[in-house]
Write the structure tokens for this entry.
Amino acid sequence: MEKGLVEQISRIMGDWLPKEASIAVAIENSYVYFKAGELDLRIQEGDPVPAGSVAEMTFKKKGKVERLVENSPLGFPYYGIGYPVEYAGQAAALVVMLPPNHILAKKPQLRFLTGKLEENWRPVPLERVTHIESSQKKTWFYSEEEAYSTIYTLKELRHQLPDYFLPVHRSFIVNINYIEGIARDLSSNYVLTMKDGSLLPVSQNYAGSIRELLGF
């Protein structure tokens, strides 16, 4: 598959892919083509294919791969879909890279979370939820200084929450309407101060996408 044909395919795919999507093609151990979307993963032609990336997994499986890559050596977590293809007579991987909170077949968005407080279950509208945490093999959400447990996992919730909820760490999702401030700690990592006084860490894997999405 010649480079010109890849570019034509990329333009056609752009008609149905979201504008945030990036497209990459890899052969063996390096990328040979990259088209950046709005969320630019900054891959360059000739860059090595990282271990654990969707491209690498597509080569190993020799079939379609679809997964969320949280600890990405590219600097951003991303949701990747890899397809085995042929490029210039060689086995290659075509990878579509999307923001981590995006999947092509989204489940219906939630409007409320039902949580357990002591022995009672209570539905809480999402606009009143400040943040969500995964801790001790349970998922908790917080509202009006109360902590509720929920049956959902953090991974499930990432794909069913409105876009004002942002993943900032593998253990936290926050409602941006309740962020009071963003600062750096002694290790130069970002820390969110929430309106209820909670201090939540931003992992390095999410720092770039948070800056991009919040515009700072």
Observations:
- The radius of gyration is 19 Å.
